[in-house]
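Researcher: I'd like a structural prediction for the single chain below. Treat it as a standalone chain; there are no partners to consider.
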Amino acid sequence: MKTKKDNIAEYILYLWQMEDYLRAFPQQAEATTELHELNEMMHREGIIESGHLQLASNALDELEELHAQLLDEDAMYRAAIMRLQPSLNLLKAKTDRPTMSDIEACLLLLYQIMMLRLQKKEITPETAQVQQQATQLLQFLSKTYRDFDISK
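Model: Treating it as a single chain, here is the predicted structure.
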């Protein structure tokens, strides 16, 4: 299983994917110990039909804290998020949660693109460009998180 320390953004995306997998194929919950444990958590947390595991929410909160810190301290990071802002605002407007954070919107974008690719659907060049920008931003955040976490 992915870990937060390895790559916190991939960890969140992985948890989201496993949640959706277990919702689509509940009979697979016993296939591995990991799936069984995640399924048990989903039952305990009451998110069998929708929602995210507390593990994913906590990791997202940590990423959000780092994001806020970098916005205050890093001009290059601030510029990168500003370039993404129009695309993120469009994405958020198309959801049932238009006030979601920019980092959650980046993760949602990457997750939706991953789902489209699994369905063998094409994405536009514009979407691919936004995907690249969001990926770079999340890679930077994940690396910064890992470097910061190791130094604790």
